[in-house]
Specification:
The structure holds two protein chains of two kinds.
Chain A: E1 5-7, E2 10-14, E3 19-24, E4 33-38, E5 45-50, E6 54-58, E7 61-66, E8 71-76, E9 85-92, E10 100-102, E11 106-111
Parallel strand pairs in A: 2-11
Antiparallel strand pairs in A: 1-3, 3-8, 4-5, 4-9, 6-7, 7-8, 9-10, 9-11
Chain B: E1 4-7, E2 10-13, E3 19-25, E4 31-38, E5 42-49, E6 56-57, E7 65-67, E8 73-78, E9 87-94, E10 105-106, E11 110-114
Parallel strand pairs in B: 2-11
Antiparallel strand pairs in B: 1-3, 3-8, 4-5, 4-9, 5-6, 7-8, 9-10, 9-11
Classes of the chains: A mainly beta, B mainly beta.
């Protein structure tokens, strides 16, 4: 049974700060690692993903994956108030069937 | 943009009553999912489907049934609703193909309150 944990539970940062969100997982056979973002009262929306060890950058967002330590993270550069949302990490269940196991989320608030 | 629509968006039910949550997708995705979201638990998988006519149990299927009569439609059925099923329910669709595996498209959610 996949166990996905996120930290911190909540985070308040000033506008312009660099923000780091963490996710650990338990199944070393996992292949697909996602971050989803959910604004208040809205649907979760896929933000970005990574499939192999290392780093991937898209605009202000960077994902790091270290499969050996069962850990991946999301870093936001120059955080904006519009980044305020619930961030959910998700990991597949070791098969190519698209079933994800989600963490409980990190609530991010960016103060102008 | 992929489209997943849920109905009803808000529902108040009585304990012991039957509730049906409906979901329609226009993405032509094979896979559809029902999750519930509760504070502190994130999204938990209730049922999923690989295509018309198929339904599979997820992590928390007790008290729920699912129906996939067509590629586009996937329903979640609570035969005897209980207050513990008060939650926000999300339907999603996706295709488990290559690097799209895990990219789910969610509906806007259905808020269910069981009194």
């Amino acid at each position: 049974q996949q166990n996905v944990q996120q930290s911190p539970e909540s985070l308040i940062v000033p506008e312009g700060a660099r923000t780091s969100l963490n996710c650990t997982f338990s199944d070393s056979a996992s292949q697909y690692f996602w971050w989803y973002r959910q604004h208040s009262g809205k649907a979760p929306k896929a933000l970005m993903s990574i499939f192999s060890n290392g780093e991937k950058e898209e605009g202000r967002f960077t994902i790091h994956l270290n499969k050996a330590s069962l850990h991946f993270s999301l870093h936001i550069r120059d955080s904006q108030p519009s980044d305020s949302a619930l961030y959910l990490c998700a990991v597949d269940r070791g098969s190519a069937l698209g079933r994800l196991h989600f963490g409980a989320g990190t609530q991010l608030i960016v103060i102008p | 943009e992929a489209a997943v629509t849920q109905s009803p968006r808000n529902k108040v039910a009585v304990t012991g009553g039957k509730v049906t949550l409906s979901c329609n997708q226009t993405n032509n995705h094979n896979n559809m999912y029902w999750y519930r979201q509760d504070t502190g638990h994130g999204l938990r998988l209730i049922h999923y489907s690989y295509g018309a006519g198929s339904t599979e149990k997820g992590d928390i299927p007790d008290g729920y049934k699912a129906s996939r009569p067509s590629q586009e439609n996937f329903s979640l059925i609570l035969e005897l609703a209980t207050p513990s099923q008060t939650s926000v329910y999300f339907c999603a669709s996706g295709d488990a193909t290559g690097r799209n595996t895990g990219q789910l498209y969610f509906g806007e959610g259905s808020k269910l309150t069981v009194l």
